[in-house]
Design goal:
390 residues, five-stranded mixed sheet, five-stranded antiparallel sheet, 23 strands, globular, binds ligand MTE, binds cobalt (II) ion
Length: 390
């Protein structure tokens, strides 16, 4: 080694004075040295920030939980500024007793804690025709994974008494866009929740404070934020978000509709374009995340050579149904260029497809539901780039 390390031999400034006392930050914030760890948007994607999206910095995160302040945001008309005292949830339509609940009323129902990912159907949508955005935050960051506390929707629907012909629900948001989506009754009664809390605290305004619908494993658009009304009907409503949007135009001019479940997907978060290898050859830790709208992820494979040789990654952390999973692969980097990919297997046996396999079935018109295998090219300097291999 060179000379002695001053970080060891010299007294550091912070050892020489008293630090801030308790209550200096009554609601704690990260170290100023982590100020670069933020959600970011892509300016040219949307005309303004009110109907737009920003992205979770996946390359800066570990484990499986997304911190509340880093959960990506997708708003059609900005963040509704709701006074919870004036907020109501109404149940109407094909029910025996139309009901209106205050927030206090909802807190008197039995509640549950469950961890789920929310992925926007448009996540990775900009990559359909080829690699485009240079960063896992931008290619895959329309996802977050959160512990929700909420009331099973089934209990609320039972209270209202769904009529025998009530086979669909229409949740509606209290934001200016008044967003609505049709959801089949089987899903509503199965595992949907009316959530009040995320990761132990009240929902953040960006995530639908004070009430959001949780639709486990299904596309993010259905998770109506600022939830104010649920109508029960006997058919889907065919509103904007399930006709002109969130449908997949195929090559033959037909469109896939009601593609609710999110297919299994994975991505390497480190190394990646925003997180190059800085330490040179030698022991290297590769990590990433995987998820499936149909269950758990028992297995992820990783390749360093663009798919010639596959290795089984090490799963670490809790494995919950329809939740994010964390994988690692430690290897000795010889300093030569790499083509990194990960491939998820879910608990139904489904294997994540290549992008070409996906295009064979779905053509090139799509935006939504791109769960193809992502490739990062690493050069001799450890820099990473978003590429595609044949
Ligand atoms: N709910 C309302 N009321 N308004 C919206 O604009 N956006 C939807 C959904 N729910 C939206 C909404 C979309 S497209 C997605 S992907 C998710 O919320 C995003 O949730 P998030 O902002 O917590 O990431
Ligand atoms: Co969305």
């Amino acid at each position: 080694a060179a000379g002695p390390d001053p970080a060891i031999t010299q007294m550091q400034p912070w050892q020489q004075y008293l630090g801030a006392g308790v209550d200096a930050a009554p609601y704690g914030v990260p170290s100023p040295h982590e100020a670069h760890v933020v959600r970011r948007n892509v300016e040219w994607l949307t005309a303004d920030t009110v109907s737009s999206v920003n992205f979770t910095p996946l390359h800066e995160l570990e484990g499986i939980i997304t911190p509340n302040g880093l959960c990506f945001e997708r708003h059609h008309s900005g963040v509704a500024e709701i006074d919870p005292g004036q907020h109501r949830l109404m149940i109407n339509g094909l029910v025996d007793n139309p009901l209106v609940f205050t927030m206090e009323d909802l807190m008197r129902f039995p509640r549950e804690n469950r961890t789920y990912f929310l992925e926007c159907a448009a996540n990775t949508g900009m990559e359909w025709r080829g690699s485009q955005l240079n960063g896992v935050q931008f290619t895959h960051g329309m996802i977050h994974n959160v512990v929700y506390t909420g009331v099973p929707l089934r209990l609320i629907l039972e209270e209202a008494g769904v009529r025998t012909n009530g086979s669909w629900i229409l949740p509606e948001g209290a934001d200016a866009s008044g967003m609505t989506r049709s959801i089949p009754m089987e899903k509503a009664l199965d595992d949907c929740m009316v959530a009040t809390h995320m990761n132990g605290e009240r929902l953040r305004p960006e995530q639908g404070y004070p009430l959001r619908l949780v639709v486990p494993g299904w596309e993010g658009n259905m998770w109506v934020k600022w939830l104010r009304r649920i109508e029960v009907g006997d058919a889907p409503w065919h509103h904007r978000e399930e006709t002109s949007k969130y449908t997949d135009l195929l090559a033959d001019g037909q469109a896939r509709r009601f593609t609710w479940e999110m297919d299994a997907k994975s991505v390497i978060t480190n190394p990646s374009p925003q997180a190059p290898i800085l330490h040179g050859p030698g022991p290297t830790v590769l990590t990433g995340v995987a998820w499936s709208g149909r269950g758990t992820i028992p297995r992820v494979d990783v390749t360093l050579d663009g798919g010639i040789n596959w290795h089984r990654a090490r799963m670490s952390g809790p494995s919950f149904d329809k939740s994010m999973h964390r994988f690692y692969f430690e290897f000795d980097w010889d300093g030569r260029p790499l083509l990194l990919q990960s491939r998820a297997h879910d608990s139904t046996g489904y294997v994540q497809p290549t992008k070409d396999q996906l295009r064979e079935v779905r053509g090139l018109n799509s935006i939504y539901h791109n769960n193809g295998i992502q490739t990062w090219a690493i050069n001799e300097r450890g820099e990473a780039e978003n590429v595609e291999v044949g």
